[in-house]
Structures
1.
Amino acid sequence: MYLGCKFKKIITVYRQFTKLIKTYHLQTLVDVFIFAVITYGLHWLWWNGIWKSANAGGFMAFLPEVADWLAHQTFLQSSWFLDFIGYRHIAMDNTLTFPGTGYVAVLPSCSGLKQFYQIIFLFLLYPGPWKHKAWYIPTALVIMYIVNISRIVILSLVLFVWPQHWDFIHMWILRPFFYVVIFAEWVFWNEHFRKL
């Protein structure tokens, strides 16, 4: 009997909450809140569980090798693009060296692996039709890979233009830009595919 009363109260509160959301057109804020909770939860889980375990040789021990491989691919593509646009550099050991200017090292933490993980699980957890998730998730991953290569290229160009601002641009503009892209991908999903 006690559980039945509690359940009825929960249902009543839920109905009042959904009525409030509909009355004041707050669904967008609720959606953004859900996005933020999922994204932060995945971020926390990565650093406090998955990555620690992988580096300790436990569960997911293959992840550092995947991060190394992805970092190398990012390095190769960034080097190719810099050659294509005519920026001379020495490419060796995942480091783009610009004689007389500086260097950009593409480390495993620059691989984009964490962002790939966040994209995959964000869209797996978020509502929407599976037939669209099957193509949207790989597309979102390709976009993130291109963004990561662009980030390395931009950081390389910053060495020539604003070398004194390299750390600031790296930490406070290009690193958070990953989350801007993830948010934009989520908004596009939410607006166009969630309710199909």
2.
Amino acid sequence: MLLTLYTKKKFGHADVNNMYASCEQVCNPKLRGKPLYILSNNDGIPIAKSKEAKELLDLDFSQPWFKFKDIARKLGIIALSSNYEMYADFSNRFVETLRTFTPSLEVYSIDECFLDMTGFNKNLNDYGQVIKDTVKQWTGLPICVGFGHSKTLAKLANHIAKKQPQFNGVCDLTAMTEAEIDSLMDKISVGKVWGVGKAIEQKLNKLGVYTVLRLKRADCKRIRDEFGVVLERTVKELNGENWLDIQETFLESKQVMSSRSFGQRITTLVELEEAISYHVSNATQRLRKQNLYANAIMVFIKNSPFDKALPYTPNYTIGLPSPTNNTLQLNNAALWGLKKIYKEGIYYQKAGVLLTDLVPDAGQQLDIFGFSDGNERSQALMETMDKINLKFPDNNIKLASEGIKKSWVMRRELKSPNYTTDWNDLPVTVPPRFS
């Protein structure tokens, strides 16, 4: 007779506090303790702010920076452009630090991870403090940690740790009684539950469900009938059932997109061709990293919805004779499609490409018309380009059609130096002179 010992699942959730602002404050001590805003592409709207800024000014993030920058500056608020290169580097350091605390980890976003803590016999409150302190010591980033018997509970525990100072940045729901957990849930609005967006929250409120505790005690059949199976699973997870496991590997992409708003409006076909070529290069490089091939490419351009002119947002999809991840072939197709939709006299604000109908290497179906001829030579060329670009990111190989001046590139006038990713931007301290 076999005796099976059941070990209840335990999950951890680690989340960086105010990720973008914290990265800036780690690298520049003069920003620590100061109210700080991080702006979106082209220095448009605030997308993140420091703890000090949240306490100083309650701002609607849909408002563009230029509308309130004078008021903000009078209050001492500092604004910086997004430094995505630096944030990605800090994210990698954060993730690698967490890997030393668990055999199984899921990277959920740039600033948060789930950890599998099943089988750990340690006091998770103490262990969470060690995780928090180690991340702070190794990366400089402040984090909070939550533990629960499901991923939804772990994420909720992190929210509690972040919002309630008595937990000192770590909350372990697995060590609490049901009554203690219910007491905490009864004080948290249902919109704070992972996966409950604004629309679902409003619909739940109409049904009298305002708190997490009310959602936890909701009838699963009614929730499924009204909202579907996803929210039903959320209710079950709030009750300690495990329906979502750690995803250590990412699923293959169904599509790859590259697009960005321009730093200034552009009107000419040449400028649009440069932008489209840049996005093709960016998208195909990401495609090759995943060892995928595209069967079609869509190119799109648009003017600003805030312009007085009528909206113009065309797109054109080109099906390919056989799947490819060759930058040159996809760029030729994209530029051909661009000419089909380009109109003179329009002030374009954004352009991009979308690679679709993706297949892995083994799923390729070759054609008989010569499009995939020289596939081995093409692959070798792309691999060589990628290796050179990885080794020399500042002087990399580009398509000639990308242009040189690039007057259309994203505006980042307030960007901080790339302290951690560029040797030339390393901060230098001049040692004192002794007589």
3.
Amino acid sequence: MIGFLRGKLAIKTPPHLTVDVGGVGYDLEAPMSTFYTLPALGSDVRLLTHLVVREDAHILYGFGTQEERALFRNLLKVSGVGPKIALAILSGVSVDGFSTCVKLKDAAALTKIPGVGRKTAERLLVEMPDRLDALGAAVAAGAPVPNGENKVEGEAWSALVALGYKPAEVTQMLKPFAGVASSTEDLIRRALQGTVRPQ
């Protein structure tokens, strides 16, 4: 099992990215929450990984935090949830946002995530509460947290998605202010100026 990769970020085209590790390019798929914490192309990057083995392919998934990977692994244990849906969930809502949806039994919020239907949402609400309790222990060891501008942008992205904006919409909202905002709150405030809150 490959636990993590450290190397140069060679390609990032959501949801795919390639990390050059000593001259070998590793292709990964990653949630959008991870993409918005990535450094510039050519920069050093460290990603936690999870390998999914199928009959026709071996697919490596990359994550910026231990918390994201732990949630991804727990989602795969839910009946009817595969890597594609798990990745969509992590792209559509933050780890904290997902936990809140489960605790509040908010199936309607979960069904807004692409690929998550009513039955899948109901299974998540039934099967995930106990796993979320265990999730805290799984991330106790911690993982490197993105710093500087990337951390600010990642936190702002997760917050706006949790407010109900679509991931692609959030990307456009944040793009003009990348590297300009002084804090997460400042970036969110700038992004929301002139934007109507979603229904």
4.
Amino acid sequence: MNYESMSKIHYLFYILIHPVTGFEELKFNKKGSVGIANLLCFLLCFAVIVRQALSAFIFRTTRVEDINILLLIAGCIGILLMFSLANWLFCTLLEGKGKFFEIWVVSCYSMLPYIMVSIPLTAIGHIITIDEAFFYNTMMVLLCVWSGLLLFIGTMCIHQFTIFKNILTLIFTIIGIVIMLFLLLLLFTLLRNVYVFFVTIYNEMSFRI
């Protein structure tokens, strides 16, 4: 395979079939692209919104009027960012060789199977019956497994870890994400309490004046 002549778009799809070689090229020959990664992050948000809003009735988990698009976008981008940050922090302590932008590129590239197939699969969901729902759900699970496998191989390649060490760092990464979510929740609660406090003071002063 002539990697030198391979375009970054061609290389992106090459990773789907040859993840080990592909992510090694990303690490050592700079085949990854932050711009393409950002585009994939945007497309992931779009795919998640489409699946939530346009899924067939038998596969819908929430009412359309209850869908918060901004929350879905923040969730998709936030999870990818927190994963990249937590993985970079823990892997730096464990002598990982991956840089933050490389982890970000790997994270976004790994979402390509879900991005490509979830929207067509959502459309197919409108023409299948409840008896065929098993195949639909199985396909969605396989998409998530495929993306997860790409993410696992990608982080292992860019950090130059063994399988066991990569599993360990991914466990630490998940713990890091939970800690970040907890801290964000505390911050949100604190800011909300401060806001309520000042609003209460303002209302009291208004009544007295």
